[in-house]
Amino acid sequence: MFHEIKITVVGTGYVGLVSGACFSELGYDVICVDKDEEKINKLKSVEIPIYEAGLKDLVHSNFVIHKRLKFTTDLQAAVASCNVIFIAVNTPTRLEDGRVDLTYVENAAKEIAGLLNEYKLIVMKSTVSVGTGRHLKSIIKKINPNARFDMVSNPEFLREGSAVADFMSPDRIVIGTETPAAKSIMDGIYQIFSDRNVPILHTDLESSELIKYAANCFLATKIAFVNEIANFCEKTGADIEKVAEGMGLDKRIGANYLLPGPGFGGSCFPKDTLGLVSAARDAGVPLDIVEAVVASNDKRKEQMVDKVIQACGKTVLQRKITVLGLAFKSNTDDIRDSSALTIVKGLQENGAELCVYDPKAMPNAKAVLFNVKWASNVIEALQGSEIVVIVTEWEEFKNLDFPSFGISTVVDFRNLYDPEDMLAMGVHYISVGRKTPNTQNSIKEVSRIKDNSLLIETQI
Ligand code: UDX
After folding, report:
1. Single pTM value for the model
2. What's the CA gap between 330 and 295, in Å, rounded?
């Protein structure tokens, strides 16, 4: 099938570039198209504009060595030399009403319409509201009534930071088609996965489009749920780690996406929950649960600011606070809707002096955070502060010797440390969904348990 399928990917963002590089790794000839000439020129120098594990190697191998992967700004040439066009341009949130902004996918469809002089398969890889595929079909037919094409929905389920791995080892592949021809070509494209027994779910356009939204909104719901249960744990002395573990052992629930944190962020969950909520409202069937998830998550980010203030004795005025982590999660440089931004700005509004550090996201953060000290590494970040707030679960934020930097208080929104250990170090430690053990008893108890022979009564 390889020689029959030639792919063009329109858009070289997180989804388009990963998809194009991975399709070329699978053996297909792929052309990645973008309007941004600077970005295309950087890609031609194997300069990858996003931080994704393994992506640079894939691009180098397929662009430089195997020459299966090409980059261009010339959409016309790309469309002329392929038979499958993946649209992977961004679909941001319309800030005024939360709806999905389809401007970029509509523009792509309009440009492609004029280039369809033989049968092509047009595949929506971007996350688009339900009904968009049918909507784009009518746009194309209006512009080019003689166009011979089929529209396909093929949503991606890539997590930032593990997008290449997620593409190469998907849980399932969802394909929405309307004709046997479209189905056959898509089966050919993903043959390598069906040969590996990856479930290929065939359905219609609308169901395929909705699967993406429903999956993301359900995952967001799990996170918002566990975060609210964590709040309840803090009031009742229950331990969220054990509660989540006990829940997750139920196969009907599953252990994943039950990690409590500062609230979900990123370019998808916030956008997709808002997008589905607004589309459902437009359809006259409000999604009360997803609306509650959006509200709960927004509230949580503000609550985290207050949690730090409470941990610092009800005021952070003129206190020196270090925030570790600016990305919305570890292993990415993406700060979109990151809880860290809400927390930094909230602490600044309450008079704190902020020092911030993130291993990868600093360049992006510098465009949106001001009047903060930018540390160049984690050691520098800890120096001179009395309070540390951990917001992103980067590996290098684990096993830090806080007392040696004079840090007296640590607020850990990712539960990277053991409360007992932290108290044994004499650090005032606040985490998520776990009790702060009683200082006196636990330090003596920990000393006694840890090493009888060198028992040193720790007097507070
Ligand atoms: C998500 C979906 O997982 C992916 O399938 C879809 O294609 C795109 O959106 P992504 O946003 O990249 O991927 O990251 P993900 O790892 O899902 O995390 C999203 C947010 O939820 C992050 O802020 C993360 O910190 C948070 N999270 C995740 C939790 O707070 N707890 C968890 O247990 C898991």
Report:
1. 0.93
2. 24
